[in-house]
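Hi everyone, sorry if this is the wrong subforum. Our group has a chain we'd like a structural model of before ordering constructs, and none of us has done structure prediction before. Sequence below.
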Amino acid sequence: ERRCVQQFGGRVRIELTQAAEDFGAGGLVHGEVKWRAVNTSIVEGKVTFDGQPVEQGTIVFEPVDGTGAVAGGMIQNGKYRLGAEEQLTPGNKLVRIKAMRTTGKKIKAGAPAPDDLMVDEVQQYIPPHYNEQSSLTAQVAAGKGTKDFELRSQP
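Answer:
Right subforum, don't worry. Here is the predicted structure as tokens:
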């Protein structure tokens, strides 16, 4: 199977799939070509935790019904943007947000680093109810939209 993908205007993705069979040395090829337009969305917004911008983290949109692609990207300075490159499609999505920060402690770097190398300890600070146990959802529409997430340490 061969596949060709083309983006148009950042919103519509065209996939061309060709399945072919080769019969003998003559090189006779029979194939079927299918075109499929995939509508993609662009979503951007802000992510805060207890009123402060999330400096660095990740955000992932998963289809609630389990069908379709999972799309995700980086949060930088409290902002994110997911578009056609991430193959975000319209629909109801489960949203997972993670972010790490330093604790102020130094810990051993561990193998294969030298035994005396100390590094900043980091920890996940976004509570599990926004990531591993997330129930946070968002309706993603076709086209371009904005979705802000105001996360709290207590639900």
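For your construct planning: The radius of gyration is 22 Å. DSSP finds no helices and 13 strands in the chain.
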